[in-house]
Amino acid sequence: MPSSLQLALLIAILLPATKIAASLCDRCGVPAILGELLVGVVAGPGVLNLLHLPCFRSGHAVDSLMLLAQLGGVVLMFIAGVETDVERMREAGGTAFLVAFSGVIWPLLLGAGAAHLLGISWRAAFFIGGALAATSVSISARTLMDAGKMVTREASVILGAAVIDDVMGLFVLAFLAASCSTGKGEAFGVAPYLSTYLQNHFGAAARFPLLVQMSCIALCVVVYFVLAYSGARSLLNPLIIRLRKLTANEAVPSCVLALVLVYAVSAEWMGSVAAITGAYLLGFTFAESQLKGDIERSFYSLGHAFFIPLFFASIGLASDFHALRGHWIMLGAIFVIAIVSKLLGCGSAALVGGMGFIPSVRVGCGMISRGEVGLIVTAMGAEAGIFQASEVAVLVAVVLLTTLITPLLLRAAFRMTYAQDDLESDELQLAATDEAISAFHATAGRSQ
Question: Does the domain made of 3-416 have the CATH classification 1.10.10.200?
Fold first, then answer.
């Protein structure tokens, strides 16, 4: 079967399956994304092993599916950025930094300590701690969207902390990378190129390679965020107004999608941060735009109809749990550390930052899920020979299990009553009324 038809068949199987499972979960009072994740688990190597059926073994359909799934993560984070309450994000800036810092230190130290107590060398143990340090905000963002909580202060802290967490996780990754040199392949982006150039041409830089590497990363992160945010702020509205003059069908969403992809690529190439961070940054800029409503509606349909379900299903599809046999104690210990370190670390930081107990619990729950950075650290450790197959399987399982449990805990945390929730609910209703009135006047103005 040609690769194009294999890909078409895979999509035809996964899309309706994710939507049916999401609907069943929603009727049972369970977060809908859990159904989409479980479809991937059932279709993955542990149960049906869908991708290794004879009709899918040849060709590049599986690789193409995973690329579409990665695009789904990018689109999801752009939508999360568009739906962010900008004022609340600014108010939560200091708290978000505390949450992010604590959410990196606790998992790194507790994860490394627990792994060493289980008989793993300190070197491998710190790789395990590094894999547990980063947060995958995609899961929390989708849960907050489904629950209608994207404009709460807790959501602002979670999303802000996740962006900062991504940058901090990058520095942890750089330290781990410096401890092992595989010699396989070349790093991608401006920072590695600049670091290599300086070390090759300046003797002082060659004597302190780690310091040079970290300095280059810090410089690239700052330059990227300044240029990307200021450029979008000044050019976005004029650009959309010009795009609206195009007569082609859906010209604006198509061109904005291209811009999202440009920001995703530039985030990794120029800024040395994850692609989803670039997409979120552009969406965050759109959140302040007068044209937010049109973009939000278009991408909500595009993302949730096609890209985002494939993203969540792919998490389970990529997981193989056969190597876990005989290592259940290690899995249980690392899984508990993964939850407790984020829940206590991020929750206590939110409490110190001035949030109440229940909002702090919500923030801690929202930071539990792990994602692509954890998998990158796992792959790096495996490539360097630091991890055995069992340790790789444990970390992949922890990433998946934290992804599965985060929606449940976050949804349960928002069911806990809190006096401020009533006030925020009134504010949201008032804001929605004002937005509807503004939209009506804008429509009336265009019709005249």
Answer: no
